[in-house]
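Work package 3, deliverable 3.1, input record:
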Amino acid sequence: MLPGGGNLRYDRMPPLWVPLRAFLVAPFLGATAGVVVAAAGSRTLDNRFTGELLGGLHLLTLGFLTLVMVGAIVQVLPVVTGANVPYTSVVGPTTQAALILGVPAMAWGLARGSRPAAGIGAVILGVGLGVFTLSVLAGAWGARRNVTGRAMALAVVSLVVVAGLGVSFLAGHAGWGPLRRDLTDVHLGWALAGWVGLLVIGVSFQVVPMFQVTPAYPRWIQEYLPPALFASLVLWTVGRIGDRVRVADAGILLVCGLLGIYGGTTLWLQAHRRRRLRDVTTDCWRLGMVSLLAACLTVAAGVLGLVDLGETRVSITLGVVAIVGFGVSVVTGMLYKIVPFLSWLHLQNLLTENHLMGGVKVRNMRQLLPVSGPRNQFLAHLVAYAMLLASPWLARGPGGWVRWAGVALTVDLSWLGFELLAVVSRHTEDRALVESHLPPDTPTV
Amino acid sequence: MTAQHRECDRLLARAEHAVADGDWDAARSEFEAFDALTRRHLRREEEILFPAFEERTGMTTGPTAVMRMEHDQMRAVLDDMAAALASRDTDSYLGESETSMILTQQHNMKEEQILYGMSDQVLGDVAVELMGRMDGV
């Protein structure tokens, strides 16, 4: 599906394992967030800044969400927008390796209070994300007239803000400078609404109509919503840093309103999809959009003084809604389409290149990923989400609720990982079948 | 051309619903309409649009080569869908239909966002004539 250059040539298509490596590792890296929570139990949720919470949170946001999103950008940007991302074949694996090595180091540093580990994590992540953002921004500049390219570029600029602040926090944890906790909310806002939000929005303009067969997003949303969201984040940040409460409130209310419009529109499009068979990706995206709306309403209620967002339980619940309910659900739904499709497509290309089309029968997408596994995994995801939502409120109760919520999250994401591994295993069987029909010494990619 | 893509999506979804409901007679007529329209659309591109594009740009191994390869893959999936329909195998049909849907959607995305845009630029002066010839296919 996704060749590496702007010229749509199959000979530029990266080997299957390049994108798959990130997609297969990410769920298991995310699952370790559950292990951290399960090991530490209720003390994880004593306040917003416990080491275990910060470590687990980043295993989920960087280890799972960002690892998948970085892979998706490098793969999708050239095809969707025609942009040529410089040095794709080096940048993709370098960024993946930096995340796979840097995130556990960082999580260890935060969860165990290890200064050297935090420092190593800061350096690896700083270099890896720096290389990624430079290369993708150079590519996205060429695609600025495409709505998805523009939203992706704004998402990557947001990542620069998030990563810059994040690395400076890690440096603070490593004892190399001051720890600016007053900027935590700025980091969080740009991470969730900017990096994750803008990227999901930009990608969804393509993949919601494509994978879920819905009408297209209205043109005005595609054109104006991403830059308006970015501008609102800037307004909020200027207000926050300059201590101008009204400016900050106006900015964050605009952010909530725009994300709410996006979430509501997506739900409306899904209600009007032309293909009405039940589909786990659509279920995942519905859950994601409902969670996004809930998060926006909660933040708006906080700004209007109806909810105390500074209260520990409220703020952690809000984080669960935004990260597990929105981010994890949406990315899970995407992986369930992308991994079987890439596997299928590589087999088809092997057949086509060797003139075996119609001669050797390989599995179709449902045979590569039978529907029952993902449906049951989605139930496990619902259980984990519900348990994590309740955790801040039941942390003081008996029964070790928080530990079990951590176990549920581990089950949720490990199960996703095993479903994807099973796809690759079936793909490998079919590939061996195809190769058995090739003349000896035929080169295969 | 983009409108034809949407019409194919609609027919594919209708055939899929009929199969899921076990209404094989309706499934057959919906599938036949989908199959005929899809194959005709592919021929229009391969016989009229792509040669004109290749002649004007000199690019014979670029985007159109990829599109032709994907057309072959789409026709192979259409054959598999027809076989599943003939043997009234619901699981197999829905699997092939899902495969066809995603293959077609990502293919359409490339055409609509890259190839059609490039064609509008390089073939704008002969667009009316080409559209007339494609209608005849």
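The two ends of chain A are 15 Å apart (CA to CA).
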